[in-house]
Amino acid sequence: FPVYPEPCRSTVTGVFMRLTLNSVLVATMTVLPVPLNVLAEQQAILDKPLISVPAALPVPNPTRSFWIDSPNANPYAKEGSEGPLTADADICIIGSGITGVSAAYHLSNALHKNDAAKPSKIVILEARDFCQHELSLNSSVQAQRQLVSIISACFTIHLRILGRNGGHLTPTVFKDFQAQAAAHGTDEALRALAVEHHTADEILRILHELGQERSVDLVAGGHVDLMFTEAEVIRMKGDYEAAKAAGVNVSDAQWLKKDETEAASYRPMSFIYGAAYPGVRIPGHNLWPLKLVTLLFNGAKDLCSSRHALALHTRTPVTAISTISSDTSSPRRWNVTTPRGSIACSYVLHATNAYASHLLPHMHGHAGIIPTRGQVIAVRAAVPTTALTRSGFSGNEGFEYWFPRPVTSAEETPLVILGGGRESTRPAFELYTVDDSVVNKHVGEALRKFLPSVFPGKYEVGREPEMEWTGIMGFTKSGDPFVGPVIDPSKPDAETAYKGQYISAGYSGHGMTRAFACAEAVAQMIAADMTGDTWTPPAWLPRHYVTTTQSREP
């Protein structure tokens, strides 16, 4: 199992000597290779009604991802891609990423616990290989205190995963609190934190109870958010104070001055960061996303094994969904069409994120989900983990994010996973882009220069990455996902036209901190409808995520 050494005094001295010598060689790399303070510029593009068309199906030949294409990483890669296709199901889940598999897990768990539930069949359909994609409310002070207690109880657990693009386990602690409160009210800003901590709490609980921390390469290394400009510092401090005033427990957040991020003196639990920028450190984790999704799929299969059924069909893209005529004898509502045949089902869950508008055309454009290409490199550091620490990082308003992979010895130079660089393509920002079969040359150049410029001497200038890939994220203009029944506001019968169809998608690059919990909420909705019960929103779910309360007017 990988070891994660902390720096000792002799190691620190040696590291400083190497860094001093190496810094001379990278003096020209101190200028950051990406534009700064451009998040507002991206938001203006997201807000703008642009001419667009519904998303195409995922391309069949995506770039090779470290997470998916490493040897033996994907045991279910081609599961169910050959042989007979399931012809009938209670629930069809479209998409085998973290949302789709989490929903299957939650549904299987709910059915397993309900002795009165009739035997049910769940089918997951995936276009490519397994897991290859990827409103203001006012309430009482007592309700606010309940929300604060949820967050405080979960505060030390942090999780963020970005489909083909990530591996981070860092949910929002207080960042963006002011914007959330201004847009949706304090209660909703608190729920926006609570949903991420609920996700983290539940996933870490599952890993701990099963003793599977090692199997998913779970690392508790903390997370540092670097601030490259004074504007970032001011905004971050404003979010911190606003969250604190609302009752959020922010005691674990450690503010680091520039000199502390450059070289913290040796003491227990201190680290050498080597970046000449101020930052905020919070507890955090990282892991191997596909291994987690595989674990959840195995769990769902085990829960279904006695009375229920779970099937997975990869390389089976859904090309259309049509209603089944009431004149037929079929008890099902929907006919799900694929190149391999059709499946009759009662419920459909769209867990397709960026590709949602392919089957739901009204979800395209700035009022729906905007496909956005992210790019990642896996590059070898020039110094061992003792010099890098185990911490994950983000910077430049969150455009860049990176962390070192686990190592097997103290002197091994780790592979570092770095994503971002989209701002180097401004004003495009890689928005409205669905092709992940190629990489963007300009983004790649920015990523190659980024780490040597932020950490002088710790990364070799000009070193080529060992892998480079792209993946498609689903952005929304609000930054928040769509969770709940599918609703087309242009239809006079908007709330019934898609009866039995649900969606959980549009995480805006902040998926795993929200996808697992959002999948839980939508699974609860489906389970309640199956049994004729009334669904009650969990305390941790932001109400403005729910499709029945959202306004999708331009």
Describe the structure.
With 554 residues, this protein is of the alpha/beta class. It has two domains: 196 residues, D-Amino Acid Oxidase, Chain A, domain 2 (2-Layer Sandwich), CATH 3.30.9.10; 300 residues, FAD/NAD(P)-binding domain (3-Layer(bba) Sandwich). The chain is built from 14 helices and 18 strands. The strands form three sheets. Strands 1, 2, 8, 9, 10, 11, 17 and 18 form an eight-stranded mixed β-sheet that branches. A hairpin with a 2-residue loop joins strand 10 and strand 11. Helix 4 packs parallel to helix 10, helix 4 runs parallel beside helix 14 and helix 7 packs across helix 14. The N terminus is likely disordered.
Can you tell me the CATH superfamily of the largest domain?
FAD/NAD(P)-binding domain
For this structure, what is the CATH class of the largest domain?
Answer: Alpha Beta
The portion of residues assigned to helices is 25-40%
The CATH topology of the largest domain comes to: FAD/NAD(P)-binding domain
Averaged pLDDT: 87
Calculate the terminal CA-CA distance, rounded to whole Å.
51 Å
Shape: globular
Pfam families: DAO (PF01266)
Organism: Grifola frondosa
InterPro entries: FAD-dep_OxRdtase, FAD/NAD-bd_sf
Protein name: FAD dependent oxidoreductase domain-containing protein
Summarize the topology.
Blueprint: H1 9-25, H2 39-47, H3 66-69, E1 88-94, H4 98-113, E2 121-125, H5 141-154, E3 168-169, H6 177-184, H7 186-210, E4 223-226, H8 230-245, E5 254-256, H9 258-262, E6 279-282, E7 285-286, H10 289-304, E8 309-313, E9 320-323, E10 334-338, E11 341-350, H11 356-359, E12 370-380, H12 385-388, E13 392-395, E14 400-404, E15 415-419, H13 441-454, E16 467-475, E17 482-485, E18 501-505, H14 512-531
Parallel strand pairs: 1-2, 1-11, 2-8, 4-13, 11-18
Antiparallel strand pairs: 3-7, 4-6, 5-6, 9-10, 10-11, 12-15, 12-16, 13-14, 14-15, 17-18
Helix pairs in contact: 4-10, 4-14, 5-7, 6-7, 7-14
Organism: Grifola frondosa (Maitake)
Domain FAD dependent oxidoreductase: 90-525
Protein name: FAD dependent oxidoreductase domain-containing protein
